[in-house]
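BUG: 3D viewer hangs when loading the predicted structure for this chain

Environment: internal workstation, default settings.
Expected: structure renders.
Actual: progress bar stalls at 90%.

Input used:
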Amino acid sequence: MKALAVLALWLITASLAFGFDERPNIILFVSDDQRADVLGCAGHPIVRTPSVDGLARDGVRFSNAFVTTSICAASRATILTGVVERTHRYTFGTPPLARRFGEASYPHRLRAAGYHTGFVGKFGVSVAGGAETIAGMFDTFVPVARTPAMTTREDGSTRHFTDRIGDEAVAFIRVAPADRPFCLSVSFHAAHAEDGDLQTHYPHAPAEAGLYTQVPMPRPRLDGEAVHAVHPPFLRESLNRRRFFWRWDTPEKYDRNLRNYFRMLSGLDRNIGRVMAELEASKLASNTVIIFTSDNGYFMGERGFAGKWSHY
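Structure tokens produced before the viewer hung:
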């Protein structure tokens, strides 16, 4: 994760050697609770992710990269700042991220270097100074909530939160200033579970409703009670185990939730494709660096667990 901020800082340094208009645009896509192997380019046999697969095919895929703290708040603070949790000291239940880390963040530094910066989607980090500090990072800041999954627009139509994030990202590109480069951070909610709704646990967009319907869902590679039983008590009795019974403990629940998890990821990928298409239409694609990552991996029933909060 530190590599993301390092890359941004390298781009700032490298840009000093070029003319103002030659500096590349940057788009950072962040998915939520997406395991590294749940991508077509990683060899997954079922999930369809053609847009990210294209990025992997045409760019560089880091196949040996690791999250430093596997929970949303701490990991997103690390992506933002380039330092690990024991340095930035932010996660759920802690005081806000110190202002000095906000001022050292990649969007703050890029903005100071002349970039037009924007954010769309799930921010997931509380920072000291609140809106004032965020304003120092981003010229435009458009948070998109996860609940409700579908919102009603003025014309009476409804829109899924993943599609709304895609809408805002496309809109940012269309109005970005022509006289300076931009850095756009697009942070998705997909494929985070809706923990308060155990029936519609992975609320996907309507466009993906027909995907994977007739496809048998693969069982976990490390499956069964015998695998779970060898773990020490502090893991066997952890939150990872309790949430297993929310998501994966019966064949019917497992198949429904895994299928919908895949659908959410395909919806995310479809919206990445929309953003890339807008770059092409705006003739910006050849001078835009695109980075894709996730905030952390995910148990999909392996070892009898759910969640992500462990050394696995």
